[in-house]
Specification:
Number of helices: 3
Strand content: 35-45%
Distance between the termini: 40 Å
Order of helices and strands: EEEEHEEEHH
Helix content: 25-40%
Largest sheet: 4 strands, mixed
Low-confidence stretches: none
CATH architecture: Alpha-Beta Complex
CATH topology: Nucleoside Triphosphate Pyrophosphohydrolase
Mean pLDDT: 97
Strand order of the largest sheet: 4-1-6-5
Number of domains: 1
CATH superfamily: Nucleoside Triphosphate Pyrophosphohydrolase
Structural class: alpha+beta
Number of strands: 7
Radius of gyration: 14 Å
CATH class: Alpha Beta
Length: about 130
């Protein structure tokens, strides 16, 4: 069994909206990507968000979430997401991987996120953000 690991972030802005990206594959999710050699999880999340969206973020490391799934046969994938705040505003999608990008309200995000496990992760991150971080 091959193991893969990616990292990303659930990013909120000052209006309590969350950043969601539509991948070219068609699904809506949070920005994320594969770890590179020598990177920490937070370094990967910061780099991937910058590459996919052009924004800089502040990671809130004490809020870390994991998602596990099998994207294809004999591959086990772990994705680590951190709670984050945006530090810059200008969104620019990475055309090679991202079809669309935007800030969404809580309800809009739940309606648009494609996978149930990502919706559940988002509910937990939103609750942590509203009740403990904001």
């Amino acid at each position: 069994m091959t193991k893969e690991k990616s990292c990303g972030a659930v990013i909120f802005n000052n209006e309590d909206k969350v950043l969601i990206v539509k991948h070219n594959a068609g699904h809506w999710d949070f920005p994320k990507g594969h770890m590179e050699a020598g990177e920490t999880e937070t370094q990967t999340a910061i780099r991937e968000v910058k590459e996919e969206t052009n924004i800089d973020i502040h990671i809130i490391e004490e809020y870390r979430y994991e998602s596990h799934y099998s994207p294809k046969e004999n591959v086990e994938k772990t994705v680590v997401f951190f709670l984050a705040k945006n530090k810059s505003e200008k969104l620019e999608k990475q055309d090679a991987e991202i079809a669309n990008i935007g800030w969404f309200s809580y309800k809009e995000a739940l309606d648009i996120i494609t996978y149930d496990n990502a919706k559940e992760l988002y509910k937990k991150a939103y609750n942590d953000y509203i009740s403990k971080v904001k």
